[in-house]
Specification:
The chain is mainly alpha-helical and 679 residues long. The protein is 67% helix and 3% strand. The protein is globular and about 85 Å long.
């Protein structure tokens, strides 16, 4: 009976997963976008409800205006809920018309980045208003415990489950038996066909995004008294919600709701097993959604429908690096001189940026060159960091072999994470790599049985040929020697990534990115190229993770948090995910990096740094897929054209014996493999 009690106890959290999964299904069917900001919408709505009910103040998001609008005193339950849900409806409508309307036919990568940008913006707005402390919320559901013999179940969980199931049934009836539901299915099957019969896909999507946001907001309100309300507290709920939605093939509400409830029940049952000495004490329950995602996507990945689109967007350009060695030499000199001249605080920020640059270059390889959307690169760096602790402290492996061996372990894990790429692609692969990152964080990085305990895993100081390369401590922190060592790794990895792009293997990667079926028809071993890209990227991320371990001296899970990795991924996309230049720019603006440190000494960026980052990210997803690096390269090409035009105007006019213009024009030759790979 005790096991049944734990199963039923998990229905409360399972109901939340079911509600968020329902919202994902509704928005995906209308716009083809998986909204990674779903948890952030739930949190934003819950904060709006909580302040209305407790203080009678309406939380408004515009930073330069007063934080709250006083409505004259605390409101009762239903007015607070109605105003909060109306806010969620407006938020969903704005998200579609301002952001996702322009991404209907965009690449999955752009849609993911846009939803990450919305998530960052919403979390930053809440953080600016409420800080990081948990906000207490008065109970909504009846209190007490339902008892039947040895079976005991809190009433609030039971009422929450019944409420969510009832909402799902009403939505199913609405979409199944109304004309609007029929139009939604028509627009999802063929956007062009729907427009030909007079159906406006934008109007359909607008209402669906509104419905999805209201359902998400209601789930956030209902769980606020049960789950501590913090700015990022509900964000991780997206992983089990995605698992539930994927079982429903992103189209069916019934299987989504049932799966969400089962995930919550199974996670609760695992907490019972954690009381046994032989069972791991933490992390296993959070890995359940990842296992489910693996099973669904690997065995049914090709069966998950893609929404009908009127056309397909083009991929961002991946420029071929030029003057690689001179550029690397100049870069190394700049890093060394900066390490020598900068004061301690700024030097530490430069070190953080150099480590972030390595992780960013791993994104360039797997996402920019091959088009495989991986959200687990920082987590792979964490694998290497924790292994570096074991290699140096337990097995006494010296530097730099410790870095090499740790990176090779990350390669093994990276290839395992990349195996589903042989069957799935696009947003489905993004989901599975995100789930892998959450599973690693929960089962390993945050598990005191495996991560060295609450004090973290120690790392032995690096040295080479008797030269101390450690970061130092006290007044000597951070030492120039460690910064120079990081500069060497950044330059070597940059040369490796540039050489990869210029090689035959790099051309094959680009061909796979453009169209893997056409690449296979051209004789390219597509599965091998994909796995090779994951191995390359994991190796680079592993090097970065080991160096981050040496930088901190103690490895902790907080340094490799999944959503910190998402922030870096977002910055790389914003800066230019297809080029090394973009990865270096992203590292400069990484939180804790050199720009952040400089900015912090002038003003307190607080949540405004994240807010601006999220807004720029949305703009990049909608208008500038090549990022800041692409704009810089476009500017360089424009300057080059202007200089060429000036030189042509400076030439003397052709004389009577000069060859005709057609005779002087270069003859077009056959397209190279490089040109074919770039489309």
């Amino acid at each position: 009976m005790i096991y049944l009690s734990f199963l039923l106890l998990g229905l409360g959290s399972g109901a939340v997963y079911a509600a968020l999964g329902t919202s994902l299904v509704v928005t995906y069917r209308s716009s083809g976008a998986i909204n990674f900001a779903t948890g952030a919408i739930a949190s934003y709505t819950a904060y709006t409800f909580a302040t209305l009910r407790s203080d009678g103040k309406y939380f408004q998001p515009i930073p330069w205006l007063p934080k709250f609008i006083d409505l004259g005193g605390p409101l009762s339950l239903w007015p607070s809920m109605l105003i909060a849900l109306a806010t969620a409806a407006v938020l969903g409508l704005l998200m579609y018309w301002v952001v996702f309307r322009w991404l209907i036919n965009a690449l999955p990568l752009a849609k993911i980045v846009a939803s990450l940008g919305v998530m960052i913006v919403l979390q930053a707005l809440v953080g600016l208003r409420f800080g990081t402390e948990a906000l207490p919320v008065s109970p909504i559901m009846p209190a007490g415990v339902f008892s039947n013999g040895d079976l005991r179940l809190p009433k609030d969980r039971l009422y929450l489950t019944v409420t969510i199931v009832g909402i799902a049934v009403l939505l199913w009836l609405f979409f199944r038996f109304t004309r609007f539901g029929l139009m939604t299915r028509a627009a999802a099957d063929s956007e062009r066909g729907a427009m030909m019969v007079g159906i406006s896909p934008h109007r359909i999507a607008s209402l669906n995004w509104t419905i999805g946001a209201v359902v998400t907001g209601l789930s956030g309100i209902l769980i606020a008294p049960i789950v501590p309300l913090t700015p990022g507290g509900y964000t991780l709920f997206i992983v089990p919600a995605l698992a539930a939605a994927l079982v429903g093939r992103l189209t069916s509400l019934g299987p989504t709701v049932i799966t969400g409830l089962l995930i919550g029940a199974l996670q609760s049952e695992i907490t019972k097993f954690q009381t046994f000495s032989w069972f791991p004490k933490s992390g296993i329950g959070d890995a359940v959604p990842f296992v489910l995602i693996i099973l669904v996507l690997f065995f049914r990945g090709k069966a998950i429908p893609q929404r009908g689109m009127s056309f397909i967007a083009t991929l961002p350009h991946s420029p071929r690096p030029r003057a690689v060695l001179p550029t690397a030499g100049v870069g190394f000199v700049v890093l060394v001189v900066a390490s020598l001249l900068l004061e301690h605080q700024y030097r530490a920020g430069l070190m953080t940026s150099m480590c972030a640059a390595l992780i960013a270059m791993s994104y360039v390889v797997v996402v920019g060159y091959v088009g495989q959307i991986s959200l687990a690169q920082l987590s792979l760096g964490g694998v290497s960091a924790f292994m570096c602790s074991r290699f140096t402290t337990d097995w006494h492996v010296p530097f730099p072999l410790s870095v090499l061996f740790s990176a090779l372990v990350a390669v093994v894990v990276g290839v395992i994470v990349g195996l589903p790429a042989l069957r799935i692609r696009g947003v489905n692969l993004a989901i599975i790599t995100l789930g892998a990152g959450v599973a690693l964080q929960s089962a390993w990085f945050n598990n005191n049985q495996f991560n060295g305990g609450v004090s973290g895993a120690k790392v032995t100081n690096p040295s080479l040929f008797g030269l101390d390369l450690g970061i130092g401590s006290g007044r000597s922190y951070p030492r120039v020697e460690f910064a120079v060592m990081l500069a060497v790794f950044v330059v070597l990895v940059g040369l490796l990534v540039a050489s990869l792009r210029r090689s035959r293997l790099g051309s094959q990667m680009l061909a796979v990115r453009v169209n893997d079926r056409a690449a296979a028809a051209g004789g390219i071993n597509v599965p091998m190229i994909k796995l090779t890209s994951f191995a390359f990227a994991a190796f680079i991320a592993g090097i970065a993770g080991s160096l981050m371990a040496y930088q901190s001296g103690t490895v902790s899970g907080a340094s490799f948090d999944v959503f910190l990795g998402l922030s870096l991924f977002a910055l790389v996309y914003l800066s230019g995910i297809t080029s090394i230049t973009g990865s270096l720019l992203a590292a400069v603006f990484f939180p804790g990096g050199i720009f952040y440190v400089v900015l912090s000494n002038w003003v307190d960026p607080g949540g405004y740094f994240e807010l601006v980052t999220g807004l720029l990210l949305i703009d990049a997803a909608v208008r500038n897929p090549e990022g800041f690096a692409g704009r810089l390269q476009q500017g360089g090409r424009w300057v080059g054209r202007k200089l060429d035009e000036r030189r042509m105007r400076a030439l003397p006019p052709p004389g009577p014996d000069s060859p005709a213009p057609d005779d002087r024009a270069p003859q077009a030759g056959p397209l190279s493999k490089e040109a074919l790979a770039q489309g």
